[in-house]
Amino acid sequence: MGDAASDIQLLNAFIVFMNFVGIPAITYGSQLALGALGLTLVYGILRFSNFAHGDTMAFGTMITILITWGFQSMGLSLGPLPTALLALPFGIAATAIWLLLTDRVVYRFYRRQRAVPVIYLIASAGVMFVTNGVVRFIIGPADQRFTDGERFVVSVREFKAMTGLPEGLAIKTTQALTVVTAVVVVALLFWFLNRTRTGKSMRAFSDNEDLALLSGIDPERVVMVTWLIVAALATIAGTLYGLDKTFKPFVYFQLLLPMFAAAVIGGLGSPLGAIAGGYIIAFAEVIITYAWKKVLTYALPESWEPSGLVQLLSTDYKLAVSFALLVVVLLIKPTGLFKGQSL
Amino acid sequence: MSAPFLIGENMTGGYGAADILHDCTIAVDRGEIAVIVGPNGAGKSTAMKAVFGMLNLRKGAVRLDGEDIGHLTPQQRVVAGMGFVPQTANVFTLMTVQENLEMGAFIRTDDISTTMEEVFELFPILREKRRQAAGELSGGQRQQVAVGRALMTKPKALMLDEPTAGVSPIVMDELFDRIIDVAKTGIPILMVEQNARQALAIADRGYVLVQGANAHTDTGEALLADPEVRRSFLGG
Fold this sequence. Notes:
With 343 residues, chain A is mostly helical. Helices cover 73% and strands 1% of the residues of chain A. Chain A has a single domain, classed as ABC transporter involved in vitamin B12 uptake, BtuC, CATH 1.10.3470. Chain A has helices spanning 3-45, 53-74, 84-112, 117-139, 156-163, 173-195, 197-207, 209-214, 219-244, 249-254, 256-266, 271-289, 293-299, 318-332; strands at 152-154, 171-172. In chain A, helix 1 packs across helix 6. Chain B has 236 residues and is α/β, with parallel strands linked by helices.
């Protein structure tokens, strides 16, 4: 056994790691980050924890799916890319209308009452149930698949043929699409918040509401623009998640926990924090629920080869990981990594 | 003498049922600095907030340039030409100095670069720190950002609520010098001050309030020389 052989072993370990941990976690993290960004924007501007966010994602994804099916039956497609991308703008528009409607019917009332945040939170739980009911009523509670186009950017077989290694690495189209979309969306969002007059006025409103009013910033306009952005973020995050896995309303409701954990870990109200938090949660979930036997077998000397699966927790406990992290952060550093409270 | 440029006349009212102000009159004219002083709880800040429309007046009137603005909200008064610098939380802490100034000019649709240049002329340190978050600046520098933000609307009158609260004596002198510079540009300045002696020294008009009513009104110089004022609250 020379050095070259052990290098190959490490390379194999790395490829297995990337295939089963790195790439899935980066993908899932990007989806969580987009979701957490929406939560953090609502928290920073409207100053409440929006429990309806997971179901908002489900609503936007549902509309996108329905339009996608329509396009598919009309024979429209994007070639190798999923048709859902074409339907996405319609999903965003419908979600924007839905969010503005809930704001008009529910949240605006409490804004005029100058209600405390906990009242908003409970009202948002109500909005959550209604949205959830609407989604189940329209598309049903079952799993829906709507992915089409090319399945892989790089498949395991192609990778093995390319490199001649025993272990393969696959990159799904939906994974590549998720990461690229997330980067573009985040770049656009930060450009908007830091460079445009409206974006700056949103940050000002989040920073110091009284002084923003004194400066002539119209709060209703800030709130409206916030909902529009949240609609876009939620629909994009939901559609990417659905493309990558499947669409099931209940799963989207459950996503609320990891998304909140991500936003809190990063610091509620901090967009940068939401992104960091998304990846932290995703990596923690995948690392803790992955069976490390294969990676360790490659990476460790033969005599240390593990006999068990080396899986810290069963994947059923995925949500427990976010919950535990959430509790730890609230105990140790309640303001989060990036000191939240404002944009 | 013609009517002053900005005047709150015979103001009576408070935040709730009980009146804090009793027939109180505060005014400032073009190119002047008017200072409101008085013991703690005299209603100094309340009087200024009344002029800015932050509490309901049961009696009295507020006029800007001869126009009755008593029915306007504080936001509408900003549009009408009043600049207000609150005592605390008067900057956007997470935004840069330049962004603070831009937000100050939010209601304007014309080019703001000349006004920003004028603010940088008045407060040179702000030009140096323009890319830094306002929350990272020292107390004195923050106050300059706060005043600069209010100046960005090109106000016809500027109101400052205790601009030197919580800064060191050296910074206080420096801030007063800057405020005199602002007044020299022709903007009438109405301010509430805790540091009565220094404030009256730069005041064209001084108002001593006691229990929400005018106790003494004169030029700053005359008030400083008034034995009654000295004895009762300047401390001899």
